[in-house]
C-alpha cells in the first residue's frame, strides 16, 4: 500500500481507502518522496501539476500536521516555488498569514498554526528576496502572535524569524531592532527550548545587524549570562554558540561591504583584550550583578553561579574555534595568559570546591583548544610558553619563613594557575610522545617543573609530580635521571617539609609510570627508594615539624614501589611485613595505653602513618597478586585486624580532639575498606560483626552531620538507564565541565590533592588525569563496594537486622538528609544484591525477602528520579536472586495494581520502570503470563501526552521488555511499532528524551523481528517500511541525541536486511557526521561505518567520495577519502570505544 504514496501528486483515492490510523504515515511517505523528487526536478516536469500540488500541500496545513510532517510540507512548498513558477506564492503566504491572524487559541487549532508559521519560515529561507515587501507584514504578525503564544508557538516563531533573517539578509534592516527586541525576551524564557530557538535566531541576526556587535555588544553579552542562569545542557550549548559567535565577529576583519563600513564609521573596533574582558566578566562574576534585585539565592552560597561559569567556558571554546587555528597560533601567548589568569583570580575560587570546579573549566578550554586545534609544532610552542608562565609564577613567590605563616594570598590563588598549566602541559607532552624530547633540549622544562615541587601548596606540588610522570612516560630516557634527582633532593633538603612532600610525590608518580615504558628502570632503583622511604619513616619522630610530611612521604614511596611489580617487591617483602606489623598496636593492652597518652598532634601523625601503611598494603595486593599466598594473607590480617580494633575503640579520642582528627581517621577507614576489598572475603569472616557496624554507620551517615552521598549509584544502575537519569552527558565532549552541575553527584569535584596515591595508581579508563573524589565521598564509596563483597557471606539473622536498620534510618532522617541516606543505602543494597548474584547465593529466608521487598517498593514512588531508578533496579536484582516465578509474579502484580489506580507521576514512572527491570533481570520467560499485561499498560502510559516524564519512563520500560522478550514478543511488534510512529509524528520535538526513548524502542523491535526483515510477504514489507519511516523521522530531528538513535536503528536494519538500507544516502550522511561537534553522533557514525565496511568496504568508500563532489568544504574526504578522514580523527579523539571502532573500520 505504501508504494502508492510514491507519486508526484498525492494519491487521494488510495488515502481515502486507508484506515484513519494509517493515513498520517501515508501522507508523510508521500511528502518524503516529493521532497526528494522536487530537488532534482526541472521547471517543465512540474508545470502541469504545480497548481494541484500547491493546493494539496496547503490542504495539509489545515489538517493539523505533527512536527515532522509540517517541516516536510514547508520544505516541499518552498522547493516547489523555487523550482517552478511563483504565481501562487503570495497567495500561499497570505493564506498562512490569515491562519496566524485567527484568534482561535484551542489546542486542536494549534498544529495548523504551527504549520503555517513553519511554512512561512521555509519560504523566506529558500526564496529570500523573491518574497518582496511582504516581510514587514509577516514579521509584525509573528511578533504580535508572540505576546500571547504558548511555548511551542514561541519556539516556532523564533525559528521562522531566524529563517526570515537568513533569507532576506540586510534587506530587512528596518525590522532588525523589532526582531531583536522579541528575541531578547525569549532568550530568558522559562521554557528551555524557547531559549535555544531564540539564541539561534539572534546568532543568525549577528550576520546582518551590525548594531548587535557594536553598540549592543555588552548588553547582549549580559543577556547571554542571564540565559545561562538556570539553564540546561542544550541551552548552554546554544547560547554559548551565540556568545562565542558574538565575540568572534568583533575580532574578524570586516568584509568589503561598503554599507556596513559606512554604518560603522563612528564605532571604534573592539581589541582582543576588550573582547576577552567581556567573557571574563561572565566567568568571574557569573553575571552576579543582574541577580541581586531578583532576590534569588544562588546555589552553593558563594557569589558565583556555576551554570553561568560553565556556559561562558563553552563560549570561550566556541570563540577560539570560530577564529581558527592560524589565528590561535598567532595569538597563543595572549590567549594562554588570559585563560590561566582567570583561575588565579580570587573571585574564581571562593572555596576549595569552587576552585576545583574553576580549574576543570580552565583545563577544558585548554584541552579543547590546544589539544584539538594545533599541530605538533604549535603544541610544542604552547608547552614552551606555559613553561615560561610557570617559571614566572614561581619566581614571584616569597619563600621567606617570616612571611610563610600567612602563605600570602597571591601564592594561594596562584597555585590554581600552576595546577591548570601543569595539567595541560602533562596532556600535551603525553600526546606528543617521543616528539616531546625536542622540548628537553630547547627549553628548561624539567627545571621549571621541578621548581614547583617545593611550592607551599600541595595541589601545585602534585600537579608538578604528575607532569613529570607524563614526561617520563613520553620520553622514557628521562626516568632514571628524574628519579636520581628526586632522591638527591630528598636527602639534601631533609629539613624542608615542602621539599620532602614534593620530591616524594614526584618519585611516586614517576614510579607509577614506569610500567608504561618498555624499558623500565634499573632493578636496584626500587631498593634504593625503599631505603629512602624507610629512613623517612624512621626519622619521622625526631623532628615534630617534619614528622607528618616524613610519615606521609615514606608510605607514599613504599606504595609506589609496589607498582614496579613482583620482581622488585619479592626481595623487599620481609622488610615490608615487619614495617606493617610494627605500625599497629600488637594487643588491646597496647591500644589502651596509646589512648591514655597521646595528644592531638601525636594522634594525627599516628593515624596518617596507619593510613599510609594500609595504603601500601592495598598497593601490594593490587600490583603483586602473585605474591599473595595464604600465608601472606594470614600475616597481613594481623595488622588489618589491629586497625579495625583501633577504629572501633578510638571514638573517645576523636570526641576529645574533634575536628582536628576527623580527616586522618576517615583516611584510615578509607584505606582499610580499600585493602579489604582486594582480599578474599572468607579470609576475614571472623571480623564481619565489627566491620559491618563500621560500614553501615558510614553510608547511613550516623556519625556524619553532612549529607554526603556516594558517587557509586549511577554506576550501580544499568548503563541503559542513562536516558532517565540524564547521565548520557557522560557521552558528550563536555562531560568534564558538565559533571559539576549534576544533582547529588560529587562527580566533577575530583582533584589530585584528595588522594596522592592516585599519582602511581592506574588512571581510570577514559581519563587523562586522575581525579580522586573528596575524602568524604571516597570513604562512602569504598564502604559501599566492600559491603557488596561482605553481604553475600553474612548470616540470615544479620541480613535481617541490617535491612530493618536501613528502614529505620531512612524513616528517621528528614528532607534532604532522608534523600542522602536513602541514596547511600540503595547504592549499598544494589552492591549487595550484585554480590549475591555473582556468588550464586540466595537472599535467605522469607523474612529477609519480605523486608527487602517492602524497603524497595517504598522507594519506587519517591520524588527523586534517581532513587526511583535505583529502586527499580533493586527490584529486578532481587527477583533475579530469589529466582522464583511465583515471587516475580507477585511483584509484577503489585505494580499492575498500582499503575491501574495511580495518577501521580512518581507512582506511574516508578512502577513502569519496575516492570521493565523485572523483565530485564528475570527475562520474559520467567514472567510470560505477565508479558501481555505489562505491554498493554506501558503502551497506554506512553500515550499520556499530558506528562512527557511518564512517557519517557513507560517507553524506556517498553524498550527493556522488548530487548529481553525474545521470540515471545513477536506478536507485540505491530502495536508497539505503530505507537512509536504515531508518537514520532505527533510529539513536540522539544521533548528530546521522549524521542530518544522511542528510538530505543524501535531499535529493540528491529532486533525482535530480526532476519525476518529480509522477507517479501506483505506484512514484512509493511513492517520494514514502517521501520525505515521511523528512522527517517529521527534522522531529520534537530537534536544529536535523536539522530544518534536513528543511526543505530539503521545499523540494526542493515544487519538483518542489508539490501533494503540505501547506502548511497546513508554513507554521505555518516561522513558528514564525522565532523560533528557531538561525540554521541561521531560514535554512532563510526560504529555504523565499522559494520558497513565489513561487508561492503569498496562501495562505502565510493559513496563517501560523492560527498566531496557536492560539498566544496569537505576537501578532507576529497583529498584522502574516508580512510584519511578516519586517520585524522585518531589525532584528536580521546574516547576509547570510538578509537577502537576507528581502528576496526580502517583494518576491516
UniProtKB/TrEMBL annotation:
InterPro entries, A to Z: ARM-like, ARM-type_fold, Laa1/Sip1/HEATR5
Similarity field: Belongs to the HEATR5 family.
Species in which this protein is naturally found: Cuerna arida
GO biological process, one term: retrograde transport, endosome to Golgi
Protein name: HEAT repeat-containing protein 5A
Domain of life: Eukaryota
GO CC aspect terms: cytosol; endocytic vesicle; Golgi apparatus; membrane
Keywords: Repeat
PANTHER family registered for this protein in UniProt: HEAT REPEAT-CONTAINING PROTEIN 5B, HYPOTHETICAL HEAT DOMAIN-CONTAINING
Amino acid at each position: 500500500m505504501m508504494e502508492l504514496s510514491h507519486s508526484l501528486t498525492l494519491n487521494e483515492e488510495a488515502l481515502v481507502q486507508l484506515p484513519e490510523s494509517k493515513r498520517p504515515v501515508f501522507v508523510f511517505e508521500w511528502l518524503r518522496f516529493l521532497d526528494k523528487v522536487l530537488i532534482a526536478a526541472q521547471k517543465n516536469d512540474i508545470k502541469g501539476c504545480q497548481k494541484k500540488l500547491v493546493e494539496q500541500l496547503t490542504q495539509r496545513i489545515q489538517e493539523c500536521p505533527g512536527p515532522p510532517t509540517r517541516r516536510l510540507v514547508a520544505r516541499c512548498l518552498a522547493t516547489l516555488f523555487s523550482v517552478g513558477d511563483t504565481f501562487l506564492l503570495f497567495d500561499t503566504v497570505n493564506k498562512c498569514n490569515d491562519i496566524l491572524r485567527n484568534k482561535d487559541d484551542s489546542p486542536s487549532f494549534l498544529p495548523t498554526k504551527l504549520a503555517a508559521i513553519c511554512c512561512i519560515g521555509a519560504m523566506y529561507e529558500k526564496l529570500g528576496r523573491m518574497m518582496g515587501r511582504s516581510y514587514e507584514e509577516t514579521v509584525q504578525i509573528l511578533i504580535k502572535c508572540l505576546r500571547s503564544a504558548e511555548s511551542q508557538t514561541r519556539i516556532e516563531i523564533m525559528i521562522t524569524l531566524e529563517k526570515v533573517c537568513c533569507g532576506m539578509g540586510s534587506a530587512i534592516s528596518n525590522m532588525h531592532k523589532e526582531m531583536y527586541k522579541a528575541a531578547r525576551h525569549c532568550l530568558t524564557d522559562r521554557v528551555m527550548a524557547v531559549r535555544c530557538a531564540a539564541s539561534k535566531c539572534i546568532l543568525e541576526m549577528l550576520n546582518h545587524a551590525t548594531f548587535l556587535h557594536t553598540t549592543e555588544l555588552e548588553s547582549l553579552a549580559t543577556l547571554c549570562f542571564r540565559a545561562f542562569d538556570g539553564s540546561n545542557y542544550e541551552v548552554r550549548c546554544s547560547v554559548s554558540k551565540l556568545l562565542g559567535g558574538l565575540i568572534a565577529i568583533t575580532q574578524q576583519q570586516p568584509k568589503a561591504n561598503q554599507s556596513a563600513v559606512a554604518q560603522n564609521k563612528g564605532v571604534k573596533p573592539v581589541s582582543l583584550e576588550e573582547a576577552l574582558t567581556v567573557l571574563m566578566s561572565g566567568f568571574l562574576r557569573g553575571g552576579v550583578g543582574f541577580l541581586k534585585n531578583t532576590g534569588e539565592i544562588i546555589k552553593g552560597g558563594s557569589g558565583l553561579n556555576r551554570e553561568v561559569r560553565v556556559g561562558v567556558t563553552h563560549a570561550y571554546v566556541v570563540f577560539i574555534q570560530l577564529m581558527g587555528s592560524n589565528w590561535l597560533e598567532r595569538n597563543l601567548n595572549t590567549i594562554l595568559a588570559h585563560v590561566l589568569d582567570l583561575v588565579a583570580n580570587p573571585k574564581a575560587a571562593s572555596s576549595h570546591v569552587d576552585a576545583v570546579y574553576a580549574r576543570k573549566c580552565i583545563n577544558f578550554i585548554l584541552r579543547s583548544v590546544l589539544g584539538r586545534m594545533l599541530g605538533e609544532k604549535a603544541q610544542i610552542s604552547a608547552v614552551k610558553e606555559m613553561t615560561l608562565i610557570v617559571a614566572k609564577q614561581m619566581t614571584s613567590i616569597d619563600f621567606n619563613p617570616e612571611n610563610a605563616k600567612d602563605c600570602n594570598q597571591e601564592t594561594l590563588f596562584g597555585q590554581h594557575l600552576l595546577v591548570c598549566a601543569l595539567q595541560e602541559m602533562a596532556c600535551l607532552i603525553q600526546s606528543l610522545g617521543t616528539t616531546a624530547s625536542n622540548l628537553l633540549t630547547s627549553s628548561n622544562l624539567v627545571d621549571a617543573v621541578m621548581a614547583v615541587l617545593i611550592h607551599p601548596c600541595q595541589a601545585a606540588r602534585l600537579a608538578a609530580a604528575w607532569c613529570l610522570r607524563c614526561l617520563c612516560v613520553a620520553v622514557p630516557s628521562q626516568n632514571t635521571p628524574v628519579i636520581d634527582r628526586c632522591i638527591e633532593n630528598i636527602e639534601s633538603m631533609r629539613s624542608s617539609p615542602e621539599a620532602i612532600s614534593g620530591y616524594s610525590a614526584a618519585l611516586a608518580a614517576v614510579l607509577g609510570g614506569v610500567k608504561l615504558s618498555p624499558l623500565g628502570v634499573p632493578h636496584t632503583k626500587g631498593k634504593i627508594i625503599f631505603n629512602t622511604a624507610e629512613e623517612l619513616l624512621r626519622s619521622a619522630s625526631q623532628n615534630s615539624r617534619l614528622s607528618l610530611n616524613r610519615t606521609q612521604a615514606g608510605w607514599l614511596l613504599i606504595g609506589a614501589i609496589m607498582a614496579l611489580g613482583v620482581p622488585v617487591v619479592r626481595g623487599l617483602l620481609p622488610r615490608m611485613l615487619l614495617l606493617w606489623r610494627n605500625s599497629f598496636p600488637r594487643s588491646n593492652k597496647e591500644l589502651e595505653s596509646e589512648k591514655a597518652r597521646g595528644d592531638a598532634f601525636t594522634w594525627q601523625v599516628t593515624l596518617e602513618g596507619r593510613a599510609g601503611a594500609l595504603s601500601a598494603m592495598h598497593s601490594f595486593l593490587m600490583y603483586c597478586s602473585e605474591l599473595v599466598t595464604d600465608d601472606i594473607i594470614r600475616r597481613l590480617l594481623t595488622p588489618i585486624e589491629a586497625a579495625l580494633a583501633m577504629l572501633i575503640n578510638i571514638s573517645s579520642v576523636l570526641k576529645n580532639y574533634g575536628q582536628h582528627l576527623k580527616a586522618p581517621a576517615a583516611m584510615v577507614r578509607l584505606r582499610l575498606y580499600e585493602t579489604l576489598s582486594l582480599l578474599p572475603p572468607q579470609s576475614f569472616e571472623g571480623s564481619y560483626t565489627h566491620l559491618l557496624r563500621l560500614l553501615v554507620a558510614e553510608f547511613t551517615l550516623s556519625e556524619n552531620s553532612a549529607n554526603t552521598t556516594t558517587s557509586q549509584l549511577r554506576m550501580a544502575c544499568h548503563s541503559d538507564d542513562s536516558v532517565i537519569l540524564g547521565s548520557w552527558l557522560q557521552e558528550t565532549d563536555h562531560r568534564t565541565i558538565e559533571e559539576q552541575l549534576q544533582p547529588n553527584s560529587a562527580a566533577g569535584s575530583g582533584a589530585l590533592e584528595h588522594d596522592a596515591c592516585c599519582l602511581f595508581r592506574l588512571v581510570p579508563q577514559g581519563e587523562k588525569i586522575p581525579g580522586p573524589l573528596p575524602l568524604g565521598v571516597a570513604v562512602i564509596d569504598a564502604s559501599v563496594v566492600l559491603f557488596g563483597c561482605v553481604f553475600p557471606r553474612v548470616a540470615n539473622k544479620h541480613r535481617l537486622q541490617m535491612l530493618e536498620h536501613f528502614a529505620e534510618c531512612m524513616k528517621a532522617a528528614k528532607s534532604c538528609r532522608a534523600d542522602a541516606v536513602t541514596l547511600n543505602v540503595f547504592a549499598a543494597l544494589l552492591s549487595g544484591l550484585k554480590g549475591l548474584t555473582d556468588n550464586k547465593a540466595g537472599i535467605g529466608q522469607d523474612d529477609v525477602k519480605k523486608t527487602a521487598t517492602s524497603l524497595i517498593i517504598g522507594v519506587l514512588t519517591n520524588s527523586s528520579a534517581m532513587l526511583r531508578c535505583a529502586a527499580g533496579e533493586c527490584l529486578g536484582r532481587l527477583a533475579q536472586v530469589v529466582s522464583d516465578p511465583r515471587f516475580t509474579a507477585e511483584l509484577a502484580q503489585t505494580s499492575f495494581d498500582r499503575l491501574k489506580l495511580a495518577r501521580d507521576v512518581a507512582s506511574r514512572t516508578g512502577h513502569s520502570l519496575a516492570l521493565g527491570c523485572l523483565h530485564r533481570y528475570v527475562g520474559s520467560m520467567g514472567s510470560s503470563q505477565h508479558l501481555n499485561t505489562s505491554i498493554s499498560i506501558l503502551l497506554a502510559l506512553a500515550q499520556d501526552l499530558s506528562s512527557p516524564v511518564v512517557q519517557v519512563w513507560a517507553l524506556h520500560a517498553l524498550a527493556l521488555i522488548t530487548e529481553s522478550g525474545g521470540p515471545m514478543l513477536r506478536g507485540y511488534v505491530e502495536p508497539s511499532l505503530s505507537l512509536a510512529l504515531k508518537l514520532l509524528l505527533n510529539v513536540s520535538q522539544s521533548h528530546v528524551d521522549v524521542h530518544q526513548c522511542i528510538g530505543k524502542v524501535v531499535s529493540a523491535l528491529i532486533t525482535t523481528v530480526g532476519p525476518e526483515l529480509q522477507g517479501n510477504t506483505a506484512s514484512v514489507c509493511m513492517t520494514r517500511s514502517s521501520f525505515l519511516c521511523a528512522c527517517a523521522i529521527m534522522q531529520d530531528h534537530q537534536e544529536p541525541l535523536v539522530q544518534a538513535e536513528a543511526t543505530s536503528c539503521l545499523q540494526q536494519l542493515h544487519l538483518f536486511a542489508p539490501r533494503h538500507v540505501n547506502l548511497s544516502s546513508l554513507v554521505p550522511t555518516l561522513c558528514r557526521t564525522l565532523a560533528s561537534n557531538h561525540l554521541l553522533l561521531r560514535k554512532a557514525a563510526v560504529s555504523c561505518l565499522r559494520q558497513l565496511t565489513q561487508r561492503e568496504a569498496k562501495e562505502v568508500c565510493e559513496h563517501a567520495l560523492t560527498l566531496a563532489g557536492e560539498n566544496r568544504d569537505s576537501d578532507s574526504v576529497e583529498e584522502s577519502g574516508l580512510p584519511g578522514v578516519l586517520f585524522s580523527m585518531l589525532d584528536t579523539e580521546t574516547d576509547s570505544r570510538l578509537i577502537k571502532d576507528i581502528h576496526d573500520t580502517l583494518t576491516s
